[in-house]
Design goal:
With 793 residues, the chain is of the alpha+beta class. It contains eleven helices and 56 strands. 16% of the residues lie in helices and 38% in strands.
């Protein structure tokens, strides 16, 4: 981990959240256990020390009565650590699950109580020799009392629910202190308070098994002190047993003397513990951070600092980041290297934020529009108005930050961020049917020329994650691909992003081996033809850094795999300590923002093996014959052409030189195009089909002439429908001419190579005719290469 984003008071970088909190008896330290052990100054909240633990090794922690020693239970051993210096004093081998079952330290510091596989054990701290053990009940080391519960079927075997009995005995002597029997209820669970003076038990009645209540008994006599309804599975007791706090459910604080509720809704459910003087309650908040609560006012003590919420946004250049706050009242700007808070912008009602076209710009949506912020000037410099029904919480922005899109009623509206003007209005009403509603989720390609919409097929019955994906050209609105997709891998449902300029990813599960699903790479120019099928395990997390040659999965067991989009093979597999997939990667892939439950974020370094995949190609020398064969295969079927492109890219700069020699953009004969259009317009001309085919081979450069001809043609009759259809095809991204398709695939090869020589040749191609597809593809490739080169490496 490089840095944590957010407040630092009682902060940790534990990816699994804090599981256990303990005060030292002198109340100087608060100790927390997550992935590691954290030791904070209890008064200031400053992190005083950290004990790094092996991955997935932590079990429990205890602090000795003299506040000098910390016992840390691991899977295979127990560490005794000096709390002041954080140095390990000694370690003992754990028997069974001793490490995960440390429960209580005796007042004299000589014994430790454990619970392992239903058995209570007491061990001598110095020798770790077992002093006593018991296989049933709940034992109090503080008072040597053992509580047991039974449901005695001998009383009345005809009853479906037998009566319950609680008994407390003095363990060493075996003397029974008291027992109680209830024919109308069952005991769910029971515990002693830390000092052993109270026994608290959860019951439910036979007549109302869904209603649970707790009864608190005086441990020596069995007298009931109080009772209250509660669904909580555990309680925390204050010193002197005057107050109990629920761990979950309504999270209430309750006075023991009379059962009065003192407060409701104490943060989120989880571990609670009182300070030795009872004036503070340590708990875990929604961000997974430890907080202290004043038990006189039940308010959090001290300012925990700003906490981020929602998906973090990496601004252009990667030097700064932005998040919303939990109240959506502010936008927080953070340093991308250190995680330090730089600024807070007043932005009430913000629903979502996205990156802008440069390092100073940020887009923030709220009801009725999208605000374009200059974060250095701390003001909104432009507002893109939207209707009140627009899905402003789901708007998307292209990777270069220049184009924004949002679902608005029965359309997807696409805007220029620089001008705020609407670029395209894509009608989505045709997708609606009588039985299915449409909820689009949109994404733009890196250069903003393509948009995908993911639609949930919602009906009266659960559709089990069935979606369909539609990919459209932004300028023309033409649909290039539509197909069903299943949310079977990771948290996304069906679409993961555009791959460079010419491909996109979907998922599927039909005919996949058991326990697996498919990640499918599809080609835009051939209407979504599948060029690569990769079989992955179902479940876990999925991450795709836009336009990179790989994607990442992490299984539920924590195994990280990096998959090549070119070969479909696993290129890296490991179980890193702090890398979780489903994160936001910085451009270039060298760093990431790690997010996990509770809206907590840290900045981390991507494993070197993964970075190498993004930044290095293993170039090799190709013979001229190989070049010629691969060049010919670029004319072939999509899957074979995709494989040939990967092999060509492996040639590096020698491939660039070969493509320079073979590159030839046909000259556009404007006079010939006009003659073909006149043939198309001529009423009854038998050569129309030939003219249409010839114009289609000329590509988008014939568009201006066709549009002029359409204005002269009779609307709705004669050649007008044919001209409109031809304009739609030439305006879209699907390519029918084989030579043009090969040139576009060659541009993808240059982007894969990504060297200075490749970028220089792309710059030459990008200066070609403005309407040519090759020009547009080259411009997009240069933008994406610039994003990867300058984005925070």
């Amino acid at each position: 981990m490089i840095a944590r984003i957010g407040g630092t008071r009682f902060a940790s970088d534990s990816t699994s959240g804090l599981q256990i909190l303990r005060f030292s008896p002198d109340q100087k330290w608060l100790v927390g256990l997550g992935d590691d052990v954290y030791i904070w100054d209890a008064e200031s909240g400053r992190l005083a020390g950290k004990l790094a633990l092996p991955a997935n090794a932590a079990g429990t922690i205890l602090v000795s009565p003299d506040s000098k020693t910390l016992a840390v239970g691991l899977k295979d051993k127990i560490l005794f650590v000096d709390l002041a210096t954080r140095k390990t004093l000694r370690e003992v081998a754990a028997e069974g699950n001793d490490g995960g079952s440390l429960f209580a330290w005796s007042a004299d510091g000589k014994q430790i109580q454990l619970l392992r596989k239903g058995y209570w054990h007491v061990r001598d701290v110095e020798t770790w020799r077992e002093v006593r053990s018991e296989h049933s009940g709940w034992y109090s080391l503080a008072t040597d009392a053992l509580a047991t519960a039974t449901q005695d079927r001998r009383v009345d075997r005809r009853k479906p629910e037998p009566p319950a009995k609680l008994e407390v005995i003095r363990f060493t002597s075996g003397k029974s202190l008291w027992e109680k029997t209830w024919p109308d209820r069952a005991v769910d669970r029971y515990f002693f308070s830390p000092d052993g003076k109270l026994l608290y038990a959860a019951f439910h009645s036979h007549e109302a098994p869904d209603v649970q209540w707790w009864s608190l008994f005086d441990a020596p006599t069995g007298a009931e002190v109080c009772r209250f309804k509660s669904s909580s599975w555990n309680l925390a007791f204050s010193p002197g047993d005057t107050t109990v706090v629920e761990w979950d459910g309504d999270c209430r604080a309750i006075r023991v003397a009379d059962g009065k509720v003192l407060v409701t809704g104490l943060l989120t459910s989880g571990w609670r513990c009182f300070s030795p003087d009872g004036k503070l309650l340590a708990s875990v908040d929604g961000s997974g951070r430890a907080v202290l609560i004043d038990t006189a006012t039940w308010h959090v003590v001290g300012d925990p600092g700003p906490e981020p919420e929602g998906e973090p946004v990496i601004l252009s250049g990667g030097r700064r980041m932005a998040t919303r706050t939990s109240r959506s009242a502010e936008i927080l700007i953070w340093d991308g290297q250190t995680g330090r808070l730089l600024d807070s912008l007043p932005a009430s009602g913000t629903e979502a934020i996205r990156r802008g076209p440069d390092a100073h710009a940020l887009l923030a949506s709220r009801r009725g529009g999208i605000d374009v912020w200059d974060i250095d000037q701390r003001k909104v410099i432009r507002r893109i108005p939207l209707s009140e029904t627009a899905a402003t919480d789901q708007f998307c922005v292209s990777e270069d930050g220049g184009t924004a899109a949002v679902g608005d009623g029965e359309a997807i509206r696409v805007f220029s961020v620089a001008s705020g003007k609407e670029m395209s209005h894509i009608d989505i009403k045709p997708y609606e049917t009588t039985n299915h509603g449409v909820t689009p989720d949109t994404r733009l390609s890196a250069d903003g020329t393509l948009i995908t919409a993911r639609y949930k097929l919602s009906s009266d019955k659960d559709d089990n994650g069935l979606f369909f994906i539609a990919v459209r050209d932004v300028e023309s609105g033409q649909e290039l691909y539509r197909g069903a997709s299943h949310g079977i891998i990771g948290g996304e449902q069906g679409f993961y992003g555009f791959v460079r300029g010419g491909y996109f990813l979907t998922t599927g599960g039909e005919n996949a081996p058991k326990g697996t699903g498919f990640v499918l790479v599809r080609e835009v120019a051939t209407a979504g033809a599948v060029v690569q099928t990769i079989t992955c395990p179902i479940g876990g997390y999925f991450d795709y850094p836009p336009d990179f040659p790989f994607f990442l999965t992490q299984s539920m067991q924590g195994v990280l795999r990096c998959w090549s989009l070119d070969s479909g093979r696993v290129l890296y597999e490991g179980k890193p300590r702090e890398f979780h997939v489903g994160t936001t990667l910085f451009p270039g892939g060298r760093r990431f923002i790690l997010a996990w439950s509770g809206e907590r974020f840290v900045i981390g370094e991507t494993p070197k093996e993964v970075v190498d995949l993004a930044t290095h190609l293993n170039f090799r020398n190709l013979a001229e014959k190989e070049f010629s064969g691969l060049w010919g295969r670029l004319l072939g079927e999509p899957k074979d052409a995709y494989e040939a492109a990967a092999e060509l890219a492996s040639g590096g700069d020698s491939t660039v030189e070969f493509l320079k020699r073979r590159w030839k953009l046909p000259a556009f004969d404007e006079s010939a195009a006009r003659r073909l259009v006149e043939t198309l317009i001529a009423d009854g001309d038998t050569k129309r089909d030939g003219a249409i085919a010839a114009l289609e081979r000329m590509g988008p450069r014939a568009l201006s002439i066709l549009r002029d001809a359409l204005s002269r043609a009779s609307k709705g009759s004669g050649p007008a429908p044919e001209i409109e259809s031809l304009i739609a095809r030439l305006s879209g991204s699907a390519i029918s001419d084989a030579d043009e398709l090969r040139r576009v695939r060659a541009i993808d090869v240059l982007e894969r190579i990504g060297t200075k020589e490749a970028a220089d040749f792309l710059s030459v191609v990008a200066k070609g005719p403005s309407l040519a597809r090759e020009t547009r593809y080259a411009v997009g490739s240069l933008r994406r290469l610039a994003l990867r080169r300058d984005g925070g490496n």
